C-alpha cells in the first residue's frame, strides 16, 4: 500500500493507491483509486513526499519518504525543521521553453520516519479511541465506550427534543389554519355561489333581441323570503344557544337564503360543507371547509408515530371536530360570538346504521356547542327522515320549515324575475301560478322563457312522464314485478286521495264565488294535506312513505302533514287519475297482486299411484285442533 499526499494550505490530501507509482505520479496531488484522508501537516514540508503504509503488531504506521531534485542538496539532518524552504521563482509569462529544452532532473526517494496524526475511521463498535480504528473527532473522555454511549445519548436526545418541538409547532399551526378558514373575505362555497350572479346585466333591448329566454341569462333580482331575516341572525352569529334544521322541499330556496346571508357578512365566522353518501368523500369535504388536512401533511412518520388514518372516516371526522372545538373556544373568547358551521343536504347520508351514526355524531357536537354558545350548526334537508331521526335526541334543535311561496308572493316573484320587466296580463300570471305553484325554481324557469305558457306546459308534461316512470301501473303484471307494483299501487292510492281533496276544494271555492263571498281572481287553492297517520291507513304500508319522500313525490313538514311535493306533481297526478279506466286499472293491479300472493301462499298436494277404490285420509292441525278429510277414489276419476 502506498499513500501519496501533497501539501495544500498546511493540510495534506492523501489517496490510497494499489498501483506502482511512476515519476509522473510524484507531482500529482491525488491518485485514484483510493480512500480519502485529510490530516494536519507542518508548513515546512513543501515538496511532494510519499507515505508508505504498513502495520506493525496490529498498529498502522506511516513511513515518510521525501523526494527532491538532484540539484537540491539534501541535508543529513532528519529533522525537517532545520531545513529552510527556498522561495519559489516567479514564472515567466513571456517565454515558454520547449519540452526538449527543459532541464532533465532525476529524483530519488529518501525514507525517514515521521510522527503523523492521522484521523482514522470509526467502524461500528470501534469506540472513540485514538488510532485508525477508533479515532474520534470530539474526544470527551479517554474511555472509548463511554464516549460512544454519550454521543449516542446526545444524538437521541436531540432527535427527541426536535420531535417534541415539531409536534407542538404542527398542532399550533393546525389550529391557526382552521381559524383562518373562518376569516372573512374568501369561502370556496360562497365564491362558487357568487359566480351564478356575477355576470353583467343586460339592458331591456338586449334581452329582447339577443338573449331573451336563454339559459345563460340568470336572474338579476332575488326574491327575499320572509324567513330571510331569521336566517341572517343565525348565520351572522346573533342567534345563540341553539342549532337549527332547515326543512323544506327541493327548490324552495334554502341554500339561496344561506348564501345571501353569508355574502352580507363576507362569510366571516361561517363555513359551509355539503353532505355525501360516502363518508370518505364527506371527510374530505369537511376538511376542505375548515382547512384541515387530517395530518396528511405531517412529517411525524419520521418519529415512528402511528398513522391517524387507520381508524376510518368516523374517527377522522371526530378528530376534526375536536380541533374545531378548540378553535371555536378561542374565537368566541376573542370576538364574543359563535362560529357557524353549515351542513347542506344531510338527507344525502344513507338511511342505514352508518349514515345515522354520522348524523348522531354531528348532532352530539351540535348539542354541546349550542349549550356552550361557541358554535352554531345549521343542517339543511329536503327529506323528512333526518328530522324524524334527530328529533328523538334533540333538545336544543330548532326547526325552520321552508315551504313554497303563497299566491301573492308567487305573482310578485314572477314579475320580478321576468328579464324584460314587461307587464304580463294578470290572467296569464294567475294561470301560470295555478299551474306551477309557488316553487321558486319553477317560477324562475318560466319567467326566463320566451313563451311562458309553452314552458309551463312542457314542465307539466315532463313531470307527468317522470311520475309514470317511477310509479306507473302495469296491468296483468308478472310475479317478478309484484313488489314494484305493490309499491306503485299504494302510491296511487295516496295520490288519488290528494286529487280527490283538491277537487273538493275547487267545488267549495266555486260555490263561494257564486255566492259572492270570493272573486273570480281569488280562486287560488293551496296544496291538499293529509295527516301522517291517515296516510299510513290509506297506503296500508308504512315503509313506502320514506321512498316517496326521497323521490320528491310527496313532502312531509314538521307538523307531520303530508302533501304533494309541488303543484306540478299534483296536476300531473290529476291528469293520470282523470284518464279513462284509471280506477279499473288500479283495482285490477291490486287484484292481480292478491292473486300472485295467494298463489305464493297456496300449496298443492298431488297423490300418485292410486288404484280404483283406494281411500285417502288427510289430517290438518291448526292450533291443536285436527280436521280430518276422507276421500275415496271413484271409478270414473
Automatic annotation (TrEMBL):
The chain crosses the membrane at residues 148-169. Residues 73-84 have a biased composition (Polar residues). Residues 73-133 are annotated as: Disordered. Residues 123-133 have a biased composition (Gly residues). The keyword Nucleotide-binding does not apply. Coiled coil: none annotated. Residues 469-597 form the AAA protein C-terminal winged helix domain. It holds the Pfam family WHD_AAA_fung. Keywords: Membrane, Transmembrane, Transmembrane helix. This is AAA protein C-terminal winged helix domain-containing protein. The lineage of its organism: Eukaryota, Fungi, Dikarya, Basidiomycota, Agaricomycotina.
Amino acid at each position: 500500500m502506498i499513500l501519496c499526499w501533497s501539501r495544500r494550505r498546511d493540510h495534506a490530501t492523501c489517496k490510497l493507491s494499489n498501483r506502482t507509482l511512476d515519476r509522473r505520479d510524484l507531482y500529482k496531488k491525488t491518485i485514484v483509486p483510493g480512500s480519502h484522508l485529510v490530516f494536519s501537516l507542518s508548513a515546512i514540508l513543501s515538496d511532494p513526499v510519499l507515505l508508505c503504509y504498513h502495520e506493525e503488531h496490529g498498529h498502522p504506521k506511516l513511513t515518510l519518504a521525501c523526494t527532491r531534485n538532484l540539484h537540491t542538496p539534501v541535508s543529513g539532518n532528519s529533522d525537517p525543521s532545520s531545513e529552510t524552504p527556498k522561495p519559489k521563482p516567479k514564472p515567466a509569462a513571456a517565454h515558454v521553453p520547449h519540452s526538449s529544452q527543459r532541464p532533465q532532473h532525476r529524483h530519488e526517494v529518501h525514507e525517514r520516519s515521521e510522527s503523523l496524526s492521522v484521523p482514522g475511521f470509526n467502524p461500528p463498535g470501534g469506540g472513540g479511541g485514538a488510532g485508525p480504528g477508533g479515532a474520534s473527532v470530539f474526544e470527551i473522555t479517554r474511555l472509548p465506550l463511554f464516549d460512544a454511549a454519550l454521543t449516542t445519548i446526545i444524538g437521541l436526545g436531540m432527535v427527541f427534543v426536535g420531535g417534541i418541538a415539531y409536534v407542538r409547532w404542527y398542532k399550533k399551526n393546525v389550529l391557526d389554519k382552521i381559524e383562518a378558514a373562518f376569516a372573512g373575505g374568501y369561502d370556496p362555497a360562497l365564491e362558487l355561489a357568487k359566480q351564478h350572479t356575477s355576470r353583467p346585466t343586460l339592458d331591456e333591448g338586449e334581452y329582447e333581441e339577443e338573449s331573451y329566454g336563454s339559459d345563460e341569462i340568470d336572474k338579476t333580482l332575488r326574491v327575499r323570503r320572509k324567513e330571510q331575516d331569521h336566517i341572517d341572525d343565525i348565520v351572522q352569529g346573533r342567534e345563540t344557544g341553539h342549532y337549527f334544521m332547515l326543512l323544506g322541499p327541493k327548490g324552495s330556496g334554502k341554500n339561496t337564503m344561506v348564501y345571501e346571508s353569508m355574502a352580507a357578512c363576507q362569510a366571516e365566522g361561517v363555513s359551509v360543507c355539503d353532505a355525501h353518501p360516502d363518508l370518505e368523500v364527506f371527510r374530505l369535504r369537511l376538511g376542505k371547509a375548515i382547512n384541515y388536512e387530517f395530518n396528511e401533511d405531517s412529517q411525524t412518520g419520521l418519529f415512528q408515530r402511528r398513522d391517524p388514518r387507520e381508524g376510518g372516516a368516523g374517527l377522522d371526522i371526530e378528530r376534526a371536530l375536536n380541533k374545531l372545538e378548540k378553535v371555536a373556544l378561542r374565537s368566541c373568547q376573542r370576538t364574543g360570538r359563535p362560529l357557524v358551521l353549515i351542513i347542506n343536504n344531510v338527507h344525502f347520508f344513507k338511511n342505514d346504521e352508518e349514515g345515522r351514526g354520522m348524523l348522531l355524531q354531528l348532532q352530539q357536537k351540535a348539542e354541546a356547542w349550542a349549550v356552550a354558545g361557541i358554535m352554531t350548526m345549521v343542517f339543511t334537508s329536503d327529506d323528512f327522515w333526518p328530522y324524524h331521526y334527530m328529533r328523538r335526541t334533540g333538545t336544543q334543535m330548532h326547526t325552520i320549515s321552508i315551504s313554497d311561496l303563497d299566491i301573492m308572493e308567487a305573482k310578485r316573484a314572477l314579475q320580478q324575475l321576468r328579464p324584460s320587466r314587461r307587464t304580463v296580463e294578470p290572467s296569464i300570471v294567475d294561470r301560470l301560478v295555478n299551474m306551477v305553484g309557488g316553487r321558486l325554481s319553477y317560477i324562475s324557469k318560466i319567467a326566463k322563457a320566451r313563451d311562458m305558457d309553452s314552458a309551463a306546459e312542457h314542465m307539466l308534461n315532463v313531470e307527468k312522464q317522470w311520475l309514470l316512470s317511477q310509479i306507473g301501473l302495469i296491468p296483468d303484471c308478472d310475479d317478478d314485478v309484484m313488489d314494484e307494483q305493490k309499491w306503485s299501487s299504494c302510491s296511487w292510492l295516496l295520490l288519488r286521495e290528494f286529487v280527490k281533496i283538491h277537487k273538493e276544494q275547487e267545488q267549495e271555492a266555486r260555490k263561494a264565488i257564486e255566492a259572492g263571498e270570493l272573486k273570480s281572481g281569488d280562486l287560488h287553492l293551496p296544496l291538499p294535506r293529509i295527516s301522517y297517520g291517515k296516510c299510513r291507513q290509506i297506503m296500508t304500508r308504512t315503509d313506502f312513505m320514506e321512498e316517496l319522500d326521497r323521490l320528491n313525490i310527496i313532502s312531509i313538514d314538521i307538523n307531520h302533514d303530508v302533501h304533494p311535493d309541488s303543484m306540478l306533481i299534483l296536476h300531473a297526478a290529476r291528469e293520470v287519475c282523470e284518464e279513462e279506466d284509471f280506477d279499473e286499472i288500479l283495482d285490477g293491479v291490486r287484484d292481480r297482486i292478491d292473486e300472485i300472493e295467494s298463489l305464493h301462499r297456496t300449496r298443492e298436494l298431488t297423490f300418485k299411484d292410486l288404484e280404483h277404490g283406494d281411500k285417502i285420509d288427510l289430517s290438518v292441525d291448526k292450533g291443536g285442533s285436527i280436521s280430518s278429510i276422507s276421500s275415496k277414489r271413484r271409478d270414473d276419476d
